Amino acid sequence: MSSDSSKKRKPKVIRTDGGPQEGKRGKADADQDARYYSEEGEVDLRDPIKDYELYKETCQELQRLMAEIQELKSKGVKDNASEIDERRIQSCVHFMTLKKLNRLAHIRLKKGRDQTHEAKQKVDAYHLQLQNLLYEVMHLQKEITKCLEFKSKHEEIELVSLEEFYREAPPEISRPAITLAEPHQQTLARLDWELEQRKRLAEKYKECLANKEKILKEIEVKKEYLSSLQPRLNSIMQASLPVQEYLFMPFDQAHKQYEIARHLPPPLYVLFVQASAYGQACDKKLVVAIEGSVEEAKALYKPPEDSQDDESDSDAEEEQTTKRRRPTLGVQLDDKRKEMLKRHPLSVTVDLKCKDENVLHLTFYYLMNLNVMTVKTKVTTAVELTTPISAGDLLSPDSLLSCLYPGDHGKKTPNPANQFQFDKVGIVTLSDYVTELGHPYVWVQKLGGLHFPKDQPQHMVTADNSLSASHMEMTVKLLRTRLQSRLALHKQFASLEHGVVPVSSECQHLFPSKIVSRLVKWAAIPYEDYAELPYTRDVLEAGLAEDTHLYYMALIERGTAKLQAAVVLNPGYSTLPPIFSLCLNWKGERTSSNDDNIRAMESEVNVSYKELWGPKPGYQLLTNQLQRLCMVLDVYLETESHDTSVEGPKEFPQEKMCLRLVRGPTRMKPFKFNYPQGFFSHR
């Protein structure tokens, strides 16, 4: 080892076989050397697999040489030094080969990375070009969609048909040779013709207005003539009274009624006269009569005889009675209340007969001290009805005529002065006595010619014939409509309580032929129970549910799904539709507050109710709404996505044909039924 360490290392020389000497190289030789000695160029010429095989062979040779050197050193023979040096030189040559292979590997790695980077840049450039092209495509698609969905103002104008256009329009406007081949020119020509027609109609409208003004002036002249004629007719009628008495008119019953009518108070008299006149002129099925004691009525208007003597005698009697017995304060208040609420002995009865021989009996009373009128009702049917449990309030006197006009529930007195009279005798409100006295509806006061304005004070309210006449026809129609609607509901409730939703043949096209969901319960509920339901809060806050309305609960089932429907029935049904609030119990509780599709189901019956009116006057609206609820419940359940975590078949297989199961980000379901195609679509 000492001899090996003393030896100097020889300088490394890179040799080339057959190459010229360094001093004699020219420029071409230098380029050739650069080509031969450039390892980067050599990498392209060498085979990586062969280099790998060379690397393995070199490593094996190194292992072998190291093992031989170790073996020679372990023998400790001095003659082996030359062999060790020879093997050491061979090992150094192999190390140089490994270094060169290492450099070639690093050069290959660098070139591979550079090639990968270049390829990645090309891919990124192509990807960027692709994104730009996709964005341009999307932009062009949006522009195309805008162009296709563009709606011009002329589309809202109802133009005449093409046949009528070519038949009536002049050739200079229609231009058949051009417009028949070009739809755009055809539309422009039709618009020109529409403009011409509207100009003509505008001129005709001005002419009609001028004629109207002329006719109005003629009417005013004739009115003045008729108004001047009225006093003359009155004088003639007055002069003919002796002749009428002499001839004895044959209308005995009418004459008796008119004789009794003289003793009616002014409001009842106005009602009697106007109702009789309307019955004779417009409604032969309206019967008016007067009931009550005529003698008591006459006694009310007899002048007192010897008033001073009576007053003195009454004072003496009062002194004697006070000495004998002093009435208590409660008895005095009761007597004062009875006197305050005293009715006139006579009353007017009005019987309204319908086409099906059902009769609405109205009895009108007049409270003399309160100066208001009241009415009591009774219904007589041609056929005896079986009263369902839920129909108990339909024909009851308290709710039958409630809100005949909006807001007129008949529980408060319409006369503002009555409240001060009530305070004197301890009456809190008139609603405690309506069962005995009748309901003081506002329309009852108007039929009697009474009007109590709230915005301006009025000391004395008198009966007005013109007020009664202006409200008579509308009120009679409303009364007859109310009776018919309540009788129709009465009949429908009998079917609903048995789980049958009656649908007439005229309304069959509104629903599919097969509806699986069924009504299993229909019951009336009080207002307090309705107000406690959590899913009716929106209806209450909107002021659409009052204590004068009727409330019902419907239960619709299909399989494990149960749909509860809280129904608000306005007294003005069917002019005012019922309002439904829904709650679906299926995989949790679903209401309009947490499920947009439940809100859409409510909209189908509450907003789109005009489709369900059926034949006029629309008494089948409620049953059609319930049938639509069953229909939309089927659609809701059948279009619900199947839970893949649950084994077995889908609980509600799809039986309804739908164009699209869901739409939009809210996943709205198709609830609109299209007849006669028979499929469901979105609104």
Automatic annotation (TrEMBL):
Pfam families: FmiP_Thoc5. Its main location: nucleus. Residues 22-40 have a biased composition (Basic and acidic residues). It comes from the Eukaryota. Residues 1-40, 299-330 are annotated as: Disordered. Residues 306-319 have a biased composition (Acidic residues). InterPro entries: THO_Thoc5. Keywords: Nucleus. Transmembrane segments: none annotated. It is found in: Nucleus. Belongs to the THOC5 family. This is THO complex subunit 5 homolog. The gene is THOC5.
